[in-house]
Write a structure and sequence with these properties.
338 residues; nine-stranded mixed β-sheet; two-stranded antiparallel sheet; 11 strands; rod-shaped; transcription; WH-like_DNA-bd_sf
Length: 338
Amino acid sequence: MNFKQLHYFLTTVNKGSIAAAARELDIAQPAISQQLASLERELGGPLLTRSFSGVTLTPAGKVFFNHAIKLVDDLSLAKNELSAFFTQQESVVKVGMLPSIGNVLSMPLIAEVKSAHPKLKLEISTGPSYAVKSWLETGQIDIALTYEQEMNSKLMSVEPLIREDLHLVTSASPSNPEYQHLLSRDTIAFWEMSQFSLLSPSSKDALGRLIAHYEKLTGVSLQHDRAYSGQLMTGLRQVMQGEGVMILPTSAVFHLQESNLVKLLKIVDPEMPRMVLAATNKTAALNDASAKILSVIKQVVAKEQALNHWCGTLAFAQHVSYSTAAASGSLMSSCIGK
């Protein structure tokens, strides 16, 4: 017994004849007759009395008719539920971001997506800004979290997330006397950074280009004489060992600052802000799954900013209320001097 046989049986009974059922179902009469005959053989006896005027139910057919209705209804319900289930099966959204962004967003973003959208799977890749840009342009990722210096207006649709503050990151260890006089300070002027060996990326990277821009703007040349692998964690190890300083947002180092392993001084005179963007590829339509992930990204950015893990000013309206926001002030405020 199968759904087709049940469907043909009910249609034939409701229409009163095999010919009428064939017209309703838009199939040949012999096909219906064959299926009805197979059903009757399986059940062990005739369900319909056939005549020139049409069909009528036998006593056994009357009993089976009510069961057939229930069986078809149950099968239809199961089919609809399974269809909805399979259409809501796990969708994969691939997000690329820089290590500094990944340090603050990856874990809470994964947790929030798992909680709010259990049918969505989030895949995160981290790399330098130029790599993240390339991944988006070639369709290897769906969303890029990157900086305005990497924006390509012809290929990218962007949404600003946060105008982050850049800080000078130094060792917090008293065993590094070169930086001891900085431990009691919260800010540093751009020109003062020229006193220290700077671990900085090349101009291929968005941060390297931003630093070069401020050197040109201020006329101050910084010391780029220390070897830097370009790997964030390796550079931070060098900083903690007193081998140089770095220019970074708090998102990259808040965990080390909380452990008193590094000291952060906000760069002033001039300040060094930069805009963090969520970018998607214009050549591909934004699907529902990616739109949901973008919404979660904004929520997590706002939460981490409210926790002072990411110092800067939100670049979008945030309507979600967090208990941490009340403790740390407005969601839109910056953590000056952190």
